[in-house]
Amino acid sequence: MTTTQEIHSPTFLTGDELSIPTFRLLKQDGTLYDGGEAPELSREQALKIYHSMVATRVLDERMMAAQRQGRLSFYMQCTGEEAAVIGATAALDDADMIMAQYREQGALVYRGFSYDEFMNQLFGNELDYGKGRQMPIHYGSRKLHYMTISSPLATQIPQAAGYAYGQKLAGDELCTLCFFGEGAASEGDFHAALNMAAVHEAPVIFFCRNNGYAISTPSIEQFAADGVAPRAYGYRMHVIRVDGNDILAVLAATRKARRIAVEQNKPVLIEAMSYRLAAHSSSDDPSGYRSKKEEEAWREKDPILRMQHWLVGQGWWNDDEEKALQESLRREVLETMKRAEKRPPPPLDSLVSDVYADVTPTLQRQLDQLKRHIRQYPEAYPKGARSLDPDVKARDDASDAHAQEGE
Amino acid sequence: MTTTQEIHSPTFLTGDELSIPTFRLLKQDGTLYDGGEAPELSREQALKIYHSMVATRVLDERMMAAQRQGRLSFYMQCTGEEAAVIGATAALDDADMIMAQYREQGALVYRGFSYDEFMNQLFGNELDYGKGRQMPIHYGSRKLHYMTISSPLATQIPQAAGYAYGQKLAGDELCTLCFFGEGAASEGDFHAALNMAAVHEAPVIFFCRNNGYAISTPSIEQFAADGVAPRAYGYRMHVIRVDGNDILAVLAATRKARRIAVEQNKPVLIEAMSYRLAAHSSSDDPSGYRSKKEEEAWREKDPILRMQHWLVGQGWWNDDEEKALQESLRREVLETMKRAEKRPPPPLDSLVSDVYADVTPTLQRQLDQLKRHIRQYPEAYPKGARSLDPDVKARDDASDAHAQEGE
Amino acid sequence: MPTMNMLQAINNALDIAMAEDDKVLCFGEDVGIFGGVFRATSHLQEKYGRSRCFNTPLVEQGIIGFANGLAAQGSVPVAEIQFADYIFPAFDQIVNETAKFRYRSGDLFNVGGLTIRAPYGGGISGGLYHSQSPEAYFAHTPGLKIVVPRNPYQAKGLLLAAIRDPDPVLFFEPKRLYRASTGEVPEEDYQLPIGEAEVTREGSDVTVLGWGAQMEVIERAVELAEKEGISCEVIDLRSILPWDQDSVVESVLKTGRLVITHEAPLTGGFAGEVAATVQERCFLYLEAPIARVTGMDTPFPLTLEKEYLADHLKVFEAIKASVAF
Amino acid sequence: MPTMNMLQAINNALDIAMAEDDKVLCFGEDVGIFGGVFRATSHLQEKYGRSRCFNTPLVEQGIIGFANGLAAQGSVPVAEIQFADYIFPAFDQIVNETAKFRYRSGDLFNVGGLTIRAPYGGGISGGLYHSQSPEAYFAHTPGLKIVVPRNPYQAKGLLLAAIRDPDPVLFFEPKRLYRASTGEVPEEDYQLPIGEAEVTREGSDVTVLGWGAQMEVIERAVELAEKEGISCEVIDLRSILPWDQDSVVESVLKTGRLVITHEAPLTGGFAGEVAATVQERCFLYLEAPIARVTGMDTPFPLTLEKEYLADHLKVFEAIKASVAF
Ligand SMILES: Cc1ncc(C[n+]2csc(CCOP(=O)(O)OP(=O)(O)O)c2C)c(N)n1
Ligand SMILES: Cc1ncc(C[n+]2csc(CCOP(=O)(O)OP(=O)(O)O)c2C)c(N)n1
Ligand SMILES: [Mg+2]
Ligand SMILES: [Mg+2]
Questions:
Q1: Cis peptide before C242 (omega within 30 of 0)
Q2: Are strands D232-236 and D198-201 parallel, antiparallel or unpaired?
Q3: Is the pTM of this model over 0.90?
Q4: Ligand 2 site, residue C56, Cβ cutoff 6 A
Q5: Is the pLDDT confidence value at D261 over 70?
Q6: How many pairs of residues across A and D have Cβ atoms under 8 Å apart?
Q7: Which of A148, A224, A401, B89 has the fewest CB neighbours in a 10 Å radius?
Q8: First CA to last CA across chain B, in angstroms?
Q9: Interface test with D, best of C58, C88, C131, C297 (most D CBs within 10 A)
Q10: Is the pLDDT score of B399 beyond 60?
Q11: Percentage above 90 pLDDT, chain D
Q12: Which of D107, D111, D241 to probe by mutation at the B interface, max B CB count within 10 Å?
């Protein structure tokens, strides 16, 4: 439906006539802005959120260090964006589906993915739910309603629209939250997704993490507009821009978005303004494309510290607790890492399973041929050769774990 | 760059806070709206525009009739949208590139594509610049700066951005105008194109013909927003919505858009509101998805009549001239159609030329093999068999024509 | 048994699937009230409502992305791509997503419920963009199944099997036969197996292999050949992926000769895969080179379409040449 | 002659092309100031300015659409796709547009100036989406040229030829060799022919054919084979499309045996096309079935990558089996 207003001189609109403000509640010192009202938040949930943020940070620090030591092939940090990711997750029903990009491990932490589960994926061992097929950080959990990460960017956005539409038809009263970066939002799939969700009224929350960069590309070379939020006008979609380093604002905004999605069956767009404090990934060195000064300025806005200040102000947290938490998490990371590293790789058969629901004759032939070949050169394929004389016990563990995960 | 305005309560924007008005100059009776000012338009150009509109309408009527008689395999009409297409074209420099969708033959008429040239394409004969390879209505003309039509929708939109960027680098002071339908604007390529053009400041005019339908799909099932225009906000792009049946408004808007594009190197979006008065194509029957009443309401807004009324008001046109024009055009269509129908098909070699700049050995082998085969069964391949005993004269004509077109 | 054309058989299969399981959804461009530009989804919106049969915006990558999400959620989407020529904007969603969904997640998630229907092929004066046969583009993608029916009976049974198959299926419909091919089709529910070829005619001198609309071309060629005393074994591959190597190999071991035909261009076409496999598995039994009769290595033309196509005369000549080798 | 690794050779070729012709542009994700995630475009923005070397938004279909438009206009775009695994969103622009531009317009317009560069292939612990070898997906597309270099010298000469070729070229770079492969590379401008294979080693018992990073694998396999007294003729196909049938056929007519290897999965891979063609053209000369040593018919795995890959031992075994047949 188009508007019926008329003009009789050729006046162009330029976008300057509208501006989308940023929703903020918490100042960096942990106090609220005047007029700001904290969302309802029990001490218990507040601490769960905070623990998750810290646990994510600690995991990231340790694993990046492990990567530098050569223990891990690849890693990506959530650092700087924990409030955006965990605040959004905390606003959801635990059964809502999350379809993330790759930098949202905080959501999994919040939902209870254990360090062991992280490590098994990172090391692609026999207990990895993904069976060692994808690069590190491509987590997934069926029981936690967290879709397995896929590297091609933005593909999950229209999928989230479809998933949410299915939830609506099923009458689940659930929604899907879809995370993506401001870079990924340039893909054609973004446009497809938002338009389809709006037309078909899918209960989906599109959550854009605008962290300023897509690898080396600053957002100013990604789009000419005032961020991603104004695109909502193109789909007549509810939209809010929120300070992504402000846990309370993210929580409040996402809760409200969820109500719009689930109660009105309408998609919502949230743009969380934040900053990727770390490198893009372990393969990246940001000094080639941005200044230390810029990084420092953002380090001042650390979302975890901000929440910590608020918690302390509430009387819910103190330095001793902080120290104890940090230490226990560090210890746990190191222990679980050691366990996971030592675990054997997935069995050879996992090379051909899950391509289809059942292994096809052609794949069976290819597997048999591979086995014959490995028998000839077992020393050249140590991981595969293990499977030919399987450590039955290890395998049983693995299938137990999978059975659990599959519910 | 994002705005710095802040709010402290989670207020969602919904799109209702903005509305994009429609620019109109001409009422259906040919008089101007109060406060409207006609763009500068010489009698000569006005008549050229009008002639082109009528010539397009006549061509469409006759060719659709020819299709119904089985003389033509397929046809698509511009009917109802002549003002949008021709008004936009008339606002351009003749050397500006036009990249169209398929329903914009009016642009070619305006630029001087002859009925003969149309017919040769429609009948895919040896004089067709496209060498009989594409379906009817896939016109192209290098000398008239009109890119050959391609059926896959929206692919020309990012191409137009790139073409315009090249024009800018070349310092041509020219722009590219890209036509597309409101349906095609749903494709991922649309988003890619507008974003890239905005970021890289390409002098391109994106001209959306919003004619209410994409085949059977009404625009209300195409998008939830107020048309296509609000998407410009997502790219910080100049935008105007114009009455597509109002030749003066389209002309004025596009002229201004062209100045923004060429002088400021900025892309512009124009949304022309109109209606597809005819069926989608000769394969379509609109009675399955829209009412006669709706069609009638739009027939009242006929853009050609509207311009005619204006011309008569200017004292530049009368009934006798109208009658003479109609008759001569009808006659010309029929004559040129007869000529084109009788023309032989393109030679057999055209099957393998232009796949690459030079015919590859494999293709040469395939052609030779085909020729041997056709020699065996000449009666089964009458069009191809002709080439084996070529009518040298006809071929020479064809290559003359191509030489001309290639400049 | 009623007589149906291929469109009616497809419509009937969709109707049965939607009636049986309300998780089945049909959508795509113009498939709603209009029933699709070919009318394969006629009356489904009336019967099952707008939420289960609907028009989508005009965006193939969105249609398949949306369908992938629905399938992952547990729905059973049947997505239509209006012409197979327009499936390419969805190539990433199909090849990188649909095909790899189960594998990459270690079977935590899958999109096995997905079926993608698309009319394909030439012979309708469609030129470059209403004629393509893109099956080989997808056949290089483990995780997909690809099915092409040759007549209404096959279309219904294979489509029902595709919708219920635990893996995602690309279902290419020979649009040239939509109305041209008619035949008896049971009214009841039935399925035909995916992954199995069918020997439609037994013979001893040469095996002739194809799928979809080419089966009709093969029939005409084989009739000419039989008149010249050549005994042909005809195989409809039906599934391009996974394909039934064993049935083809068995036939060639018997006849010693193989002619494969498809509409798509030669280079990189699926006949190459079949030929490469068969020469390996039947090496000592082959009495003539495996012949491929295909479209030419060019985009699909219009005016000279007849010359371009792999028609019955070209297949016939290839059969003769194989036997005479 | 300076020693360069493959990235340096590519960077050098781009530099030469941009210096020579200011219509040459380089763009893609992160190719600007950063010089690309692999640094193939290092310093080009500094040297030639932001208007000729720039970052694009993150949208592959847009990159190629934009590049098609530029090429049609007369510019000479060299577009980078960050990983070949991410070329699929641009599949429609490449297969329906780039490839068919000249043909459909009767040569009024063409995008011959276009070159698309993309790093491809496995062996870098990249899993499903940083390892694919998609050449066969494109090889079914008349109108495209496809080139894959095996070392720095080849990379420079072929890339310069690709940029200047009158047809659009897909240039797949074996990223595993980016830094691993070094060699002497002339500083001057030179071109190597597109469409011609190269015999890199002469031999008499068996022909071993590959391209790109597989050439290194073949070298190792052939060394093992030579130790066992098997004389191998090695061919680097270099161009996948159009491919040099005559050179391959000539070699097989001599050796009577052919082993083809590529990283991509078996089914629908380009080895099938080569095998199908060679069995037809060399039928009476073949002394063993043509063997294909390829990736398995699965998505690309991670932990068991070594097991999955078509490595030198598998190629070696295939050579032995061929000779022993
Ligand atoms: C389709 C596709 N193209 C390119 C890439 C390579 N790539 C991985 S991450 C990335 C940048 C993403 O930026 P953004 O979406 O802003 O997310 P952020 O990393 O900032 O969280 C790119 C280009 C990819 N994974 N998929
Ligand atoms: C990629 C692609 N998908 C589908 C089609 C089939 N198709 C041709 S025209 C059309 C409708 C286009 O509608 P719109 O863009 O509004 O243009 P209009 O016909 O109204 O001028 C469709 C779906 C196509 N040509 N290309
Ligand atoms: Mg980012
Ligand atoms: Mg329309």
A1: yes
A2: antiparallel
A3: yes
A4: no
A5: yes
A6: 140
A7: A401
A8: 46
A9: C88
A10: no
A11: 100
A12: D107
Average pLDDT, whole number, for chain A? 94
The answer, yes or no, to whether residue A393 has pLDDT greater than 90, is no
From the CA of B274, how far away is ligand 4's center (Å)? 9
Rounded distance from Cα A215 to ligand 3 centre (Å)? 7
| pLDDT tens string C252-300 | 999 999 999 999 999 999 999 999 999 999 999 999 999 999 999 999 9
* pLDDT-based confidence at residue C316 (cuts at 50, 70, 90): very high
Q: Which residue has the tokens 């055009």?
A: B329
- B349 to each of B326, D53, D195, D243, how far by Cα in Å? 40, 40, 22, 21
Handedness of CA C67, C72, C77, C83 (dihedral sign): positive
Which phi-psi region, left, alpha or beta, contains residue B406 (left: φ > 0; alpha: ψ -120 to 50)? alpha
Cα–Cα distance for residue pair D12/B218, rounded to 1 Å: 53
Q: Is D107 helix (H, G, I), strand (E, B) or coil?
A: coil
Cross-chain residue pair A252–B15, CB shorter than 8 Å: no
**pLDDT tens-digit readout, B357-375:** 999 999 999 999 999 999 9
Q: Which two tokens stand for residue B138?
A: 């896939």
Name residue C28's beta-bridge partners: C55, C80
- Cis peptide, bond prior to residue D242, ω within 30 of zero: yes
Residues 249-288 of chain C whose Cβ lies under 8 A from any Cβ of chain D: 264-265, 267-273, 275-277, 279-281, 283, 286, 288
Q: Give chains near B: 3+ CB pairs under 8 A.
A: A, C, D
Check if the beta carbon of residue D14 is closer than 8 Å to that of residue D41: yes
Is residue B385 within 8 Å of residue C307, measured between CB atoms? no
| pLDDT tens digits, one per residue of B32-66 | 999 999 999 999 999 999 999 999 999 999 999 99
Residue B346, Cβ neighbours under 10 Å: how many? 27
CA angle, residues A176, A96, A99, in degrees to nearest 5? 45
Q: Would you call D97 and B354 a contact, using CB atoms and an 8 Å cutoff?
A: no
Q: Are B346 and B125 in contact (CB under 8 A)?
A: yes
Kindly identify which residue of chain B lies nearest to residue D66, measuring between CA atoms. B162
The closest of A175, A163, A156 to A266, measured between CA atoms, is A175
Q: E strands of chain C, at which residues?
A: 3-5, 24-28, 53-55, 76-80, 115-120, 145-147, 169-174, 182-184, 198-201, 206-210, 232-236, 239-241, 258-265, 291-295
In terms of residues, how long is chain A?
A: 407
Are B23 and A10 an interchain contact pair (Cβ–Cβ within 8 Å)?
yes
- In sequence order, what are the residues at sequence separation of 6 or more whose Cβ sits closer than 8 angstroms to the Cβ of residue C63? C27, C28, C29, C56, C79, C80, C81, C90
- Band the pLDDT of B401: cuts 50, 70, 90: low
pLDDT digit string (tens) for B18-29? 889 999 999 999
Residues of D in contact with A383 (CB under 8 A): 303-304, 306-307
Pick from A211, A209, A228: nearest CA to A286: A211
CA proximity to A242, closest of A270, A283, A279: A270
For ligand 3, the distance from its centroid to the CA atom of residue A212, given in whole angstroms, is 5
Which region holds residue A35: left if phi is over 0, alpha if psi is between -120 and 50, else beta? Answer: left
- Cβ within 8 Å, pair B215-C29: yes
Does residue A37 sit in helix, strand or coil? coil
First to last CA, chain D: 45
Q: Are A155 and C93 in contact (CB under 8 A)?
A: yes
